[in-house]
Task: inverse folding
C-alpha cells in the first residue's frame, strides 16, 4: 500500500521560507491539498501552522478542508460540473473557470445562498488542457 510520511518540522520550515519569500514581493499563495485526499489531521495541522488558503480539485476533499480549517480561504481547482455548483459555492470561496455557463451557474447558486463566490478565468498556456485561448479573452 502506498504511504505518505509528513515531517511537520520540515513542513513548518518550508512554509516559513515560502511565506517569507512571497511577502517580500507583496504576494500571497494558496497551498494545494490534492495529495492529502482530505486527511483531516494534516489539514488541521496546516491551519495551526498558519496556512490561510487551501485549494483542491475534489468537492469531497474541500468538505474535509472546511471541517478541518473553517477559517481558511478555499479554492476549487477544476472547471465546475454544473451538477456540483451548489456544493462548490458552499465549500469554496473561489473557483477556476473557463466557460461562461459555469460563471452563470456559480453566480446563481451563490446568489441563492446569499454568498459571494470569486472566480478566476483560466487562460490556455499551450498544453491545450484547460482554459480559453488568449485571443478569445476579450470576447469571453
Result:
Amino acid at each position: 500500500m502506498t504511504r505518505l510520511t509528513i515531517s511537520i518540522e520540515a513542513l513548518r520550515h518550508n512554509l516559513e521560507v515560502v511565506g517569507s519569500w512571497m511577502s517580500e514581493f507583496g504576494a500571497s499563495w494558496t497551498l494545494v491539498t490534492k495529495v492529502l485526499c482530505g486527511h483531516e489531521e494534516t489539514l488541521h495541522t496546516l491551519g495551526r501552522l498558519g496556512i490561510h488558503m487551501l485549494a483542491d480539485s475534489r468537492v469531497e476533499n474541500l468538505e474535509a478542508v472546511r471541517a478541518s480549517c473553517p477559517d481558511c480561504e478555499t479554492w476549487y481547482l477544476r472547471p465546475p460540473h454544473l451538477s456540483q455548483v451548489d456544493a462548490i459555492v458552499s465549500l469554496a470561496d473561489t473557483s477556476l473557470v473557463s466557460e461562461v455557463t459555469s460563471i452563470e451557474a456559480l453566480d446563481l447558486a451563490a446568489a441563492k445562498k446569499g454568498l459571494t463566490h470569486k472566480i478566476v478565468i483560466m487562460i490556455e498556456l499551450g498544453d491545450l488542457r484547460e482554459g480559453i485561448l488568449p485571443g478569445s479573452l476579450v470576447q469571453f
In short: Strands lie at 31-32, 53-56, 73-76, 94-97, 118-121. Residues 8-24 form the longest helix (17 residues). The mean pLDDT is 92.
